[in-house]
């Protein structure tokens, strides 16, 4: 969730320079990032097909949907549903974005052991974070990004919720917001999250930060905030998680 800090800061910084004409491009090579998220969420055959493609991406290229169904040991109807479920109009569009994603994929970093040189470890850590930020940019809807920036920019108060490592992200995000002149607070205590969000108003914005999107106190607090007419934003790796479904807007991250 390291890129959550950069994402929070980028959102509010965008609020001062909003471009209402921004457009979303579905085919921008984010297929692999989408697939990684869907291996841990979704129902039926979706996670299994996503995992198969990640392990064997070349087997989904230049083949008919019937051939791919045989290779992935799934029904043709399941493959078709899989493509639409993860956000494509159909199998052909899925293939095109997968091809674009593979073409943009940098060389594998491999793994390092206890004998790795310090500079190799340093490069690995930096490159993992660079890749995470690049893929996050591809996953975020520009329309949603602009609307979230607008909400935060015009809000009365902003509360950023997180627990554990996500709590650290929440604290730094709130600090950045305050440095930009906003009234912002980080809520990292589960009980305090519930108490505060039960007394919000329609001009308040709540941002829930959770890598899995399953942190119970954050989900419940977001739901409480929405009953008070506050607007809610999720920052999570999983766009079909409980947190994402409980919010008005979702900013999807990509962090392995």
How does this structure look, described?
With 256 residues, the protein is an alpha/beta fold. The protein contains twelve helices and five strands. The protein has two domains: 3-21 and 140-252, Rossmann fold; 31-104, Winged helix-like DNA-binding domain superfamily/Winged helix DNA-binding domain (Arc Repressor Mutant, subunit A). The longest helix is centred in the middle third of the chain and has 22 residues, at 118-139. It is globular and about 55 Å long. The termini are close together.
Q: What kind of sheet is the major sheet?
A: 5 strands, parallel
Mean of all residue-level pLDDT scores: 86
CATH superfamily of the largest domain: Glucose-6-phosphate isomerase like protein, domain 1
> How many distinct domains?
2
**What order do the strands of the largest sheet run in, or round the barrel if closed?**
2-1-3-4-5
The secondary-structure class comes to alpha/beta
Query: At CATH's second level, what is the architecture of the largest domain?
Result: 3-Layer(aba) Sandwich
Indicate the radius of gyration in whole angstroms.
20 Å
Would you state the CATH class of the largest domain? Alpha Beta
- State which percent range the strand residues make up: 5-15%
Low-confidence stretches: 16-25
Series of secondary-structure elements, N-terminal to C-terminal: HHHHHHHHEHEHEHEHE
Count of discrete alpha- or pi-helical segments spanning 4 or more residues: 12
Helix content: 40-55%
CATH topology descriptor of the largest domain = Rossmann fold
> What distance separates the N and C termini?
9 Å
């Amino acid at each position: 969730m390291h890129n959550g800090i950069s994402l929070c800061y980028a959102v509010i910084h965008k609020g001062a320079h909003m471009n209402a004409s921004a457009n979303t491009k579905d085919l921008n090579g984010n297929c692999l990032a989408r697939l990684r998220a869907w291996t841990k969420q979704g129902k039926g055959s979706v996670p299994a097909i996503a995992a198969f493609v990640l392990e064997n991406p070349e087997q989904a290229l230049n083949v008919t949907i019937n051939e791919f169904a045989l290779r992935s040991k799934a029904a043709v109807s399941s493959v078709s549903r899989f493509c639409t479920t993860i956000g494509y109009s159909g199998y052909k569009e899925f293939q095109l974005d997968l091809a674009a994603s593979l073409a943009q994929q940098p060389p594998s970093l491999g793994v390092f052991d206890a004998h790795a040189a310090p500079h190799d470890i340093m490069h690995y850590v930096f490159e993992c974070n660079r890749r995470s930020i690049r893929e996050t940019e591809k996953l975020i809807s520009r329309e949603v990004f602009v609307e979230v920036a607008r909400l935060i920019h015009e809000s009365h108060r902003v509360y950023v919720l997180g627990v554990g490592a996500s709590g650290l992200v929440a604290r730094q995000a709130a600090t950045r917001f305050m440095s930009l002149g906003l009234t912002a607070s980080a809520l990292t205590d589960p009980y305090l999250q519930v108490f505060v969000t039960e007394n919000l108003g329609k001009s308040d914005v709540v941002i829930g930060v959770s890598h899995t999107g399953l942190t119970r106190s954050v989900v419940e607090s977001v739901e409480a905030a929405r009953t008070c007419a506050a607007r809610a934003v999720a920052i999570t790796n999983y766009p079909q998680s409980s947190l994402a479904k409980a919010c008005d807007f979702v900013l999807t991250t990509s962090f392995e």
